[in-house]
# Entry
Amino acid sequence: MKAQAVSDMQKNTQDLLIRQREVIGCRLKKLNGKQNEIKSKSSAVRENIVKKYEEMRRVLEEDCRITLSLLEMEEMAAVQALDNLIETNYVLLKDIEVQLNEGMVDSDIQPGDRVTMYEDRVLELLKETNPGLIKLDKAKSDQLLGLTNNLLLFIRSQVPIAKRLLKSYSSGVVLDPSTAHPKLIISSEGDCATFTDEWQDVPEHEGRFDTTLNVLSVQCWDSGRHYWEIDVSGKIYWELGLTYQSIPRKGQKEDCWLGRHAESWCLEYFDGDYTAWHGGIAHPLPISSCFHRIGIFCSFPGGLVTFLGVDSMTPLYSFCAGAFTDSLHLAVCPGHDLHGTNSKPMKICQS
# Structure
């Protein structure tokens, strides 16, 4: 009986493991299918975008061809007219050279009369072949150039498509003074955080950061897509990102720093170097540009946090969280003033 019980237990265990293997195999199949689906959809969108830009390029190239053809036709007519005048001059010049070579031996015409005749012909030729008679239509040329320049200015004036899309997700945000470290001054509008060496006389409570120079937004978000821009011009050190409400606020532990735990996503800038942080893992970025504005895009449907250099709409780094487990707050850290080199504030740009 005991042996039978052991055998039954082993069989049950084996059946359970087989079922678990089948479940995991099914999940792997769905994950691989989802991965292929995402790649396929992204590829299709990418292909359509490229086609649209190629079509715009063709339209511009055709417009350029037509515009240049107007100039070329006028140029051809002017050049042909000048060729005819040049040929007329060559004919008379050759005739004069022949007369010079032959010594003007024609006895029917007196030398003085011959000189007068050629003088009259030359005067008439100079009158008829005056280069000033052949002109391009300057007014038309100036108008074509002006219209072309206006088209260029119009194209340049258009907000880049990526920026226009992100701007459509702009969300109003105000910094929460009650969360700010006592050495941060938060503007009355709640859009600016500035470091000060003086410890501010502010109430102490559980939600205030007491070591890291952080401040969170009043608002939090748990769905949709959102975009913010922060002005960091004139600074050599700062941190900014998104965090759950549960981020630690007290003590010396690095858990209080943005991006040093699983509860926040951060972009850090220090003395020319950019680093993306999450879960305590640093991702140094090979970027040499110094951006004056940093954009943050958050997509709850996509589980995405993306940082961008707004000046040129350069993607800096993207975190794919898969699914956020809580509401997110915007967080900024202007850093110490570093002997006056980092005294500028961090300012939220209201679009």
Observations:
- The two ends are 79 Å apart (CA to CA).
- The chain has a mean pLDDT of 87.
- The domain at 168-349 is CATH 2.60.120.920 (Jelly Rolls).
